[in-house]
Amino acid sequence: MAAMPGQGNSVSAGEMKNTTPAASNRSSSSGSRRGSSPRNEDQQETCDATIHKPDSTSPLPPRPRPVNYDKDHNEKVNTIASLTGAGVLTHTAPSYEEQRASPALLSRGAGGTPGGRSARDDGYCSASSTPRALDHKPTKGSVVTLSCYKKEPKVQIEEEYFYTEGSKRLRANSKPETSDGRETWGTGADFLLSIIGFAVDLANVWRFPYLCYRNGGGAFLIPYTLMLVFGAVPLFYMELILGQYNRQGPITLWKICPLFKGVGFCAVMVAFYVSFYYNVIIGWAFYFLMSSARSELPWVHCDNSWNTEQCWDSARLNGTNRTDVKYQGPLSHFTPASEFFHRAVLEMQHSEGLNDLGLPKWQLAACLGLVYVTLYLSLFKGVKSSGKVVWMTATMPYVVLSILLARGLLLPGATRGIAYYLQPELTRLKDTQVWVDAAVQIFYSVGAGFGVHLSYASYNTFHNNCYRDCLVTTLVNCFTSFFSGFVIFTYLGFMSYKQGVPISSVATEGPGLVFQVYPEAVATLPGASLWAMLFFFMLIMLGLDSGMGGLECVITGLLDQARASGAHWLRREHFTLLVVCVSFCIACINVTPGGIYMFHLLDTYAAGISLLCSALFEAVAVSWFYGLKRFSDDVEEMLGFRPGIYWRICWKFVSPIFIIGVVVFGLLYQQPLQYQQYTYPQWAVVLGWGLACSSILMIPIVAIYKLATTPGTFRQRLACCISPESEHEAIRGGAPVSRFTWRHWLYV
Length: 748
What we know:
This protein is mostly helical and about 750 residues long. The protein has a domain at about 190-315 and about 335-710: Amino acid/polyamine transporter I (Up-down Bundle), CATH 1.20.1740. The chain contains 29 helices and 7 strands. Strands 1-5-4-2-3 form a 5-stranded mixed sheet, with no helix packed on it. The protein is globular and about 80 Å long. This is Transporter. It is found in: Membrane.
């Protein structure tokens, strides 16, 4: 075989057979082919050779059969020999039993060559696969398939051609996906709709329009776009790459840099904390949806049992109201909608504050339970089930928003509201708060740092175009924020016109907008119940997507870590039920009479500084410790192209500085913790910071634990903790550590 000729020459079966014991062990199949087909014992054995070449050549000359041919072919011999410039490699092809067990092994693609497994085969397990050496320089060689049975031994030779670097990347992109037992999305659209659904949430409806109005209208889009391009999108793209390449959850992913494994625990804890109060908002929306299913909305007038003497009905004359104070808007008075939300739904009148929570209201608890049942049914089968749910939850909000906008544009005062929404005030760009609001809004809107996008991407196929998904999701997210602003401000303009008050008296953000101002706006429309039901149905759809994403991060992260620790018996259905039940029990605190105070506390501290720290250390760990060169190599292997200089600079410098600036500004300019007229006691502030620090402290605690438990000298420990686990054995063997060189740290 060492003297085998190159291209254009032929090889017979007799020459390829090696009768030495070593060769036999190396090239024989794992099983025999006894009784594979009917045969005539007296039939003469033949050996046919076929040459597959692009041009015509002379047929193989007949060669004498070796003396021990019959003896040597009592068992099946099925090997592949690859001729390269470095020599000849042999590969064991699938046995007959393997082919029987997997019919796919018998299929042959166009121009395919039967193949087996080898160190050069990249995990192929197909009878039509060809061993490849994509990590070598362009070479020319032949692939020789020797498929010998006692009935009809054959030799097949197929030529390979020269391959350029571009064609190598193309071949790499077309290689079959290796199966690691991890489920994948049913289609690429399932994944795309899932990350769009998580990124487009309630904040797009109740926060962005108000910020745009408050911070200079159309001028606010300038800092918003800059923060989007240089801050949030690079981090979003990084998370998709990490999850898709490593196919691991947010905790086990950090085998690429064990020192920062605490970042994964931090992200999972933040996502779990957010589920305690975020799903409550969906429960409120369910309650409002059911309350809207009546001929007259319950927040139209002040004649209900829950209304107070201060209730102001703007539809009546001043003489018929119970208060003589001039009406100044829904945010300055106890309007019917405001009292319905605070007194009929939340029952705040039965609580004195955070130290007097009371018992959960059973109606709200039932609505909250309905939310968690929906989440469980969407998640317990993994992405196969949630990927189908998002087809409705991610698309229906756009249908409802379009209907509401078409109706709102017909209302008097609608154009006035849109003018206030978009009127640019360029002088506001001098205000630092405008830039901070833009940074915070786009960062939380995209959702980087939660670990949700990372978890979703881990179920992708290896060569999925996550670069395209990143850009599409970002554009859809920004469009939704901008589009929802038109919807909201058409109704705010109508409300301002009808009540004779300025826009500033009706414009607000958060739950106050969607549960007080907007319900009051639609209450005066013909067919108010229909418009109210459409609006709250849209809120439910927006919330469910994000609720599923947060719990998916928790389930994927903890389940992957448990199985990596040896708990392979743990089933996803049971673990999902456990996570959902724990989250529901804690969330019930927020449906008590004093639950709104706990809700506001969680909303302030659960995903504030801790989320920013999670994203910051993730960016630093990947771009500095794991290394931009290694990360760029991963992208090229996965997508076929390397990230450009824009992405590399943003990952290494711009995005971390962007996050640090937001964190510093947030720490220096803290607002006192209060809800309406209630000021939180000092112990509540301490509780909130303790909640935030509980997730942040996971980063240094796990880092110290890794340094303390890693075997070896201190230098070896440090090298192993900042290097991927695949390099640990070489490091302990004395190999050079690339992360101890300036070249690693200075690469951009």
